Amino acid sequence: MCGRATIITHQEELEKRFNAVFKNNVQLPENVNISAGDKIPVITSEAPGEIQLFTYGFTPHWAHKQTYMLNARCEGSLNIDNDINYKGPLGIYNKPMFRQAIKSQRCLILVDAFIEGPKQEKLNKPYLVYPNRDRGPFAIAGIYDTWQHPLTGEIHHTVAMVTTTANRLISRIGHHRSPVVLSKEDEQRWIQPDLSTTEISKLMKPFESKGFNAYPISQKIKKPDANGLELLKPTGEKLFKDYDRCLYERLKYAEDHSFTIREERLVEGDQFILF
Hints:
Blueprint: E1 4-7, H1 11-18, E2 21-22, E3 31-34, E4 39-44, E5 50-56, E6 71-73, H2 99-104, E7 106-111, E8 113-116, E9 127-131, E10 138-148, E11 155-165, H3 168-173, E12 177-179, E13 181-182, H4 184-190, H5 197-203, E14 212-216, H6 247-252
Parallel strand pairs: 2-5, 5-11, 6-11
Antiparallel strand pairs: 1-3, 1-8, 4-5, 4-7, 7-10, 8-9, 9-14, 10-11, 10-13, 11-12
């Protein structure tokens, strides 16, 4: 996937939806274009009752520099053809970058939507993928680690989205990978610290297309420093016909909602996207 996400839901609503709280006066930044190096809300297996802000872009604790790995393939180096019917072993358990985190450092990544484009055009032809029927925010399966800068000693809590093969919706966009979107029933299972690898593997599957939709948006979204609600405005028709309001319409006309989108961000280090 292209590694962009959206979070606009009010902090209080996010706490209610996931039965967890922000602590220590943490303030959730509204951001329609979360990119590498930005903060994204997570709930970890270590602190299941707390919503924390981690850096989007995984860096293992043993790395010499920040790497910003946005995605972690559940198949690892296997299934190189991205066969949607792949039923073989999941190589993530053997990847040095992720093998510890997938077993003991799993988290929920809380978003309102994610942004994807076709395999070739990528974010030159972006689509916003979101839950329909006003279902609100949802959770993507994530892994996390803590990295300490070798020179400054600064601590960085970092996270990556776990990806799998495309489902019907993502295939229609023309992409070959998809984040592992968890059902409400599976959210708490994913962050159970004692979950077996067999049970973890069962959760790393394409999400059910029913209940989600997507529509094209402006390619201005591809600039990491671009932000603002207008970036989510449809530029074409939904991929599947329905009579629900699109995400842009919900946010645009929501009562008592103000936006404080920050206009710039600084990203240091190397950015990698694992397809």
